[in-house]
Batch of 3 targets.
Target 1
Amino acid sequence: MAAVREGRWDCQRCGSTGLFGRDKICHGCGSPRPEGVKFYMTDDAPVITDQKVVEQAKAGADWICQYCGASNPALADKCQQCEAPKGQARTQGVKEYKGAAPKDGKETPAPAAQALAAAPTSSAPWAKYAIPLGIGAFVLFCCFAMSFVFFNTSQTTGTVESFSWERTIEVEELQTVEETGWDVPSDARVIHEEEAVRSTEQTQVGERTYVCGQRDLGNGFFEDVECTEPIYESEEVYDTQYTYEVEKWVEVETERASGNNQDPYWPEIFLTDEQREGDRAETYTVHLEDESGEDYEVNVSLGRWDDFDVGDELTLEVNGFGAAELVGEK
Ligand SMILES: [Zn+2]
Ligand SMILES: [Zn+2]
């Protein structure tokens, strides 16, 4: 059951403060509690245990007598002050506060409290953005500087001095390897199996109820607003994990051929019964020198590389890091 507490109100006419929620008349000046009065709740307001009072509090908001302006409990059908019938009387508003109810009767206390909390930065509203902005600006500056060096290319003319190339072939061998997994390949031999944690699952095991706000019942009392949230428990899911042996092609060596000429060839490979040829790779490099004696290396396709001769003059695009590219070759 949501807890009920008694609120307070202040009399705007005579200035009396801290009048009890159940009081419908000001003790200071005798004037009726007005329509739209602001109820608040002090920190020390105890939970009401008297069931009769709780029932009254939960009966509904007070109604305001159209004739004399007195506040009357929801269940009364006649004004307790002047006996006028309830009729179409308006009722006191019911409000819900997310979090705590107001702690005093001052007008618009919520924005005031917020202003107080924000006080350290309120003198400079942009201050909280200053650090992220600063970091952002720095990162942006670094990107800009890097790209400036990278894209700040200059062109130069290089003379072809020499050529080099490299060709490789991987040698693969069928080997028995040990692997672990949840499934066993059809050609594998299981050598060990055990139960192991395969995943973790979140299961909802219940719900938690907590106080997430206060409801101004419109009759001088407040009731806790309760919210619920799910409670999860993580559960480990077990499965059979296999360790097995399986035959796999494994890279065992790389045969390499290279030269400082324009006559590339593939390395010779010698395969045993258990071996096969794997991936091939090839690199063709042109070595150039510009007028100032600066050396450059450019990797190009075999087709272009073949067409160049020592002494050819090529236009190079050189970036801020000194890396060169042939113009038109990407
Ligand atoms: Zn008063
Ligand atoms: Zn009345």
Target 2
Amino acid sequence: MPLTNESTNWAKSAFLSFCILMFCQMPGFSQNINKILHYGQRAPSSHNAQMWQVDTTYNSIRIRLDPTKLLNKVDPSNREAWISLGAFAENCILSASGFSLMCDIQHDSTGINLTFSKSTAAHKEKYAKWIIQRKTTRTPFKKEELSTEHQTIIKNFDVNITYYPLNSEYGKIIADNLYSSNIAQLNNSTKLQELSEWTITSRKEEKQRKDGLSPSDLGLNSFSKAFFYALFNKEKIQSHRFINIAQRNTLKQVNNCSGFIIITSARNNKEEWIKSGRLLQRLWLKLTELNIRVHPMSQSIEENYYPELKEKLNINNKEIQMIIRVGYSKPRKDCSARSDLKINNG
Ligand SMILES: Cc1cc2nc3c(=O)[nH]c(=O)nc-3n(C[C@H](O)[C@H](O)[C@H](O)COP(=O)(O)O)c2cc1C
């Protein structure tokens, strides 16, 4: 039977689609997805709960909440969980550019969809280094102003970012509010119990689980770590002794830094939380590059002290999504653990 023009065209386009599909499914493409996920997973998450899971195809990643890892007591609306997923997504997008991949990002009510395609532009793998080096540092920082150059970089970074030096009127307001809200949270037994579940209290637990907060994550050196394991278990984290130590530490933290950076958004909804997480991550990578240490402190947003803080900072028309303590100090040598990623391959 003679071939018509129509059927030849159909055959051509089917062949072309087949070639594109084969090209995209070449091992290189899916290997890159695995590498991108490795960088994604280095994102920060509250209590290091890593409340993410992913579905993948050869050219896409869908990031969803892991319902078994949500912090129902300190984060009942999952605001911080979505910020953490936003940071995960940003790491994926930035690291993909190192593999000459472009990324389209969309979200719906249950997840963030990243679709990758080949980019003709040549990119250097400039983000990978900072993604790996980024970390939370909870030790006291130098009580020293950020350099003018660093303040200018932060000021020009994004309209939703503001830096408040500790020695300014607003800086003192933030330090006081963080201290009071921390005390309130430490004295809330259900929130403290949740914290104890995410705090590693023995060497055995440290070996077994790769999430949560270890003594070194909390800023303890190996000598203090031995004492910590000897003194505290899950129950004793809820004791007066622990609360007193934590209170004293918080006071030292808020009074020993250069200042605080606040990330705001126009509204409080999932879209803004994802955007804030992406912005947090971009900013944190820049601060890592500048050797500025970072410590998120969320209690002012989580506790009833939130309206008072907005009022005193004169930002009643905005929502605060992140408060981070920043400053200079020696680099932290180790980094926090990560569990095996929950991946469903499509
Ligand atoms: C949304 C969000 C809120 C956070 N809030 C706090 C906080 O209140 N106090 C704190 O010490 N760390 C906080 N962190 C930092 C995490 O505990 C930290 O990212 C996690 O332990 C993983 O460690 P890493 O950042 O060194 O990789 C927060 C992180 C995120 C993403």
Target 3
Amino acid sequence: MDELSAVIVPLQFGEAMYENLRRLKALNKQYTPVQINEELALPIYSETASLHSTEIPYRIEKVMFEHSPPSINPHLQLKEVIQGFIPQGLEHVLELIPTKWERLDDLILFPKEAFTESDWVDIIEEGIDFYEQIAQVLQARRVGRQQPIANDTIRSSQMELLLGDSGWVEVKDNGLFYGFDACKVMYSSGNVTERHRMGSLNAEDEIIVDAFAGIGYYSLPLLVHGKATHVHACELNPESIKALKWAAQKNNVSKSITIHEGNNQSTLPNLRGIADRVLLGLLPSSEAAWKPAISTLKEQGGSLHIHMNVEEKHIEQWTKDTILTCLNYAKSDGRDWFCTHQHLEKVKWYAPRVRHVVLDVSFSSSNSAS
Ligand SMILES: C[S@@+](CC[C@H](N)C(=O)[O-])C[C@H]1O[C@@H](n2cnc3c(N)ncnc32)[C@H](O)[C@@H]1O
């Protein structure tokens, strides 16, 4: 219990005075208001002059207060801190406070529509430390707003940094370190199950070709946890290459990764006949790389992980067509293969009725189907 200055009002004015004090940033929320007979005592930081204009009857006295229990719900904490910025008449924006966000390192990443409605403009401009306070309450140091992943070949990220100087983040997932500039490189938290699935495969003694390596989300787990021998990583975005080199070094596997910079249409043909497994992790479709990817598999066969966005109702047909297409590509390359294993992994919903799927398919020159 601590003795503090308190504004004391008749009970029926408690709520209105609480609002007044909150807006004036005079309310000391670290302590809990206390009812004394028919009155409410509200803890304040200091005796505030602007209160004198209120029509609510009040007096200021010293009162003993108990500490408020700490709010452990981050959504409530965020709401509480933003409430302090909202002037009278704009209370409806409280409903627009984002209810979800991602945390990458010390960066809080809000969804793309967060704080964009017109009413926020003045609130944010006038509250100079708006994003600082948000970062502080969420125990972060930077704040960003997600933008849709660009519809370009390199699937560049368009995160807008709202607080902070740099978008470089370092995250640890499934025992592995990744680092990337979130303003420049895409990040999909929805792919976590697929990243972990890649890490659970046994790739001992295998040579992997990753046709769309990005920052190594799929090939690093295969290398480190799956115990692959070597990864050939094809990537054309210099920012992703920078991130991949950083991760290779940080995870102590630089010697087991060869980065082939540039368009995989030019780099895959240099890797003919060397791979046991090829990753084709590009959305919405990796189809343009299937043919050169198949030619990187060893003469006796190997496995592909083909990512694609497919309408739910077409998944079965797409699976059959894809396997047939791959067998035909192999044949045109002088390889008479059989499909020996297939598995379809549904990773996430990409859009209504459209799924991000991964088709695992294995081919062999001998027909011993499993
Ligand atoms: C879905 S993202 C990366 C997925 C990756 N597994 C990761 O770490 O997140 C696809 C990547 O493929 C790269 N890419 C797209 N087209 C390419 C091409 N023709 N040749 C090489 N890389 C390409 C993009 O720059 C991007 O980094």
